[in-house]
Design brief:
about 90 residues; extended; 4 helices
Length: about 90
């Protein structure tokens, strides 16, 4: 019901299937930020967040997210998610 059995099937398959192993690895090793061109990359395979060509767009999205979080009354001095605490500074909380 919660999808765990489906995920577990991918983990088992990853033991013998390199493609499935890549999917599992990609899920566990996600970057801090992701930005995709969904028209040309609907399966989100090419993360553009580190591409200098998209720096302005990423900065604009960070600003929109920060404004929204402040509008919701969030204290940006707090770490928003446990996984962010492992990575240190949270780029979108600046």
């Amino acid at each position: 019901m919660d999808g765990k059995s489906y995920w577990d099937s991918w983990v088992r398959l990853a033991e013998t299937d390199p493609k499935a192993a890549g999917v599992v690895r990609r899920y566990h090793q996600r970057p801090a930020e992701e930005l995709y061109d969904l028209k040309s990359d609907p399966w989100e395979q090419a993360n553009l967040a580190g591409d200098p060509e998209h720096r302005g767009r990423l900065e604009a999205l960070r600003a929109k997210l920060k404004a929204w979080r402040l509008a919701q009354g969030e204290d940006l001095s707090k770490v928003p998610m446990p996984e962010d605490a492992r990575k240190g500074e949270v780029p979108y909380a600046r």
